Amino acid sequence: MNPGHTEPVPTDDVAALRRFNRYFTRRIGALDDHYLGQDRPLGAARLLFEIGEGASLRELRSRLGLDAGYLSRMAKSLEAQGMVRISVHPEDNRLRRIEPTPAGRTEVKEQNRRADALAAGLLSGLTADQRADLTDALATTRRLLRLAAITIDLVDGHAPDTRACLDAYAADIDARFPEGFDKSDLVRPEEVSGDTGAFFVAYEEGRPVGCGALRRLEPGVGEVRHVWVHPEARRLGLARRILAALEQAASVRELSVVRLDTHATLTEAQAMYRACGYTEIPAYVDHVYASHWFEKRLPAAP
Questions:
Q1: From 141's CA, which of 22, 93, 206, 253 has a CA 20 to 30 Å away?
Q2: How far apart are CA 226 and CA 164, in angstroms?
Q3: pLDDT tens per residue across span 175-199
Q4: Are 230 and 146 in contact (CB under 8 A)?
Q5: What distance in Å separates the CA atoms of residue 200 and residue 240, rounded to the nearest whole number?
Q6: How many Å separate Cα 66 from the centre of its chain?
Q7: Each residue of 40-95: pLDDT tens digit?
Q8: DSSP code for 7
Q9: Please, which contacts does 85-94 make with residues 24 or more away whose CB atoms are closer than 8 Å?
Q10: Bridge partner list, 279
């Protein structure tokens, strides 16, 4: 589920991305069954790289988005070739841990050398200014593709991920507010579940990286609370997507107005709310952490 994204994607945009994917995968040799001239295809080479100094198979499956059976077959093939060792995880006997052997480390080192040489060869035909343009474009591409891949899911107020996100939010702002933060100010599960409200969690590769809450204040009026993004997922534009999901949920619940308040120290949040169409209003509630209050009128849900 990706609330807040309702318009169809133009076919020209789809075609442009597919055209780039076809060019780039061919140009870097992803279609070759001897990737970078080594004795394995890209999938197995990438798995060997991602193992690093060791990881659980479950972690790798989540990180790489691989089918469990396919991952297991690749791991066993690498083990048979003497590239990795597979063992029971020392902290959880339900998990399997995979780590490189000395031969595996040597191959990854050579893989990195060859990949660097390939990248340098691709870049050598450009001027310094052109390389700078390409580097900037790649950074933008990575940021936008990360944002596009993040899902925003409606989660029950009692769910473990809900409480984990709220705990992380509380710890974050407790460090930022001069007066600290009391967790008793967090929304209650029943306020953000069912028809009374909503709680959204943003997931990147299966890991919660953001959240936002909506609760009903009075008939027709909702309140946005606890919009938070993990430090590793900031500067992607994720907070705006979470806010859009909350506004959509408010419209569905026939709330025509949403309000929110924010702390004086959260200047970046104030700027975002203004940019998203929120207007500063007088205080609508006596809240110990509030110094700015905002409101936005919403279009009716289709």
A1: 206
A2: 13
A3: 999 999 999 999 999 999 988 899 9
A4: no
A5: 13
A6: 17
A7: 999 999 999 999 999 999 989 988 888 999 999 999 999 999 999 999 988 888 88
A8: S
A9: 86/57, 89/56
A10: 295
